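Protocol step 4 of 6.
Sequence for Caspase family protein (Streptomyces endocoffeicus) entered exactly as in the expression construct, tag removed. Do not edit the line below.
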Amino acid sequence: MSIGLSVHIGLNQVDPAAYDGWSGELGACEQDAVDMAGLADSAGFDVTGPLLSPAATAETVTATLEAAAGRLAEGDILFLTYSGHGGQVPDLNHDETGDRLDETWVLYDRQLVDDELFELFGKFAKGVRIWLLSDSCHSGTVARRLPDMLSPQELDRRFSTADPQEVGRRIRAMPQSVQTAVYRRDRDAYDRIQNTRTAKDLARIDASVLQISGCQDNQTSADGIVNGLFTGTLLEVWRGGAFAGSYRGLHREIVKRMPPDQTPNLFQAGAPNSAFARQRPFTI
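Step 5 output, structure tokens:
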């Protein structure tokens, strides 16, 4: 019988000492993690966490995923969710062919670079399925332009405010100024993380990874009052389990309900497994 493990991470704030005085306050990320943990529990997953704000350190997240890798075997599944700010650091190992930037999860004490996440996925056995939901931004620059792109009416509808400065605080992206300051201060540490990992290492993933993210790499994800826009839309589509489609179908239905400037992305990596995306979500 297959095993299902789930790990849920949500940060409404980060340690200002780690981010040049920036606390990264958000409103709904912890609730996203709590709701995803509840959903996973009802589907029969063995739930870890949720890891909320101060508990969501790089060391804890890494150790939790390493422990999951040690438990899961072929045919098992890991359901992993992250809700919080997204950031970027310069790509040094040339595994990013587009913008030459590595995306990050902004954890409580430091950023977790996507190279690190993929290295952790490489610890999982062949035949393990990994389903990842990431409700975060992947661009710190677009956030500065978003208020100019939307009408005051749309800003008020989506963010319950027409104030561009307030909107800036409700987007799940680390501000560009903070990204720059943190990288300058901690450059040696972030460069060392990448210099010990190569693009070849990222290809050595025997598990099958299916990710649905809250937006494209050049977009931002909106926070909310109860849930983030992406997570709230997912829950709306799921309808407490009434949704009967596949992972691909779930992605399509979420996209239909999202605004044009936030388009959730479906991405597959690791060992090819075409049947994975056709399975019903939350199925162990």
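Step 6, annotate. The first helix runs from residue 29 to 42.
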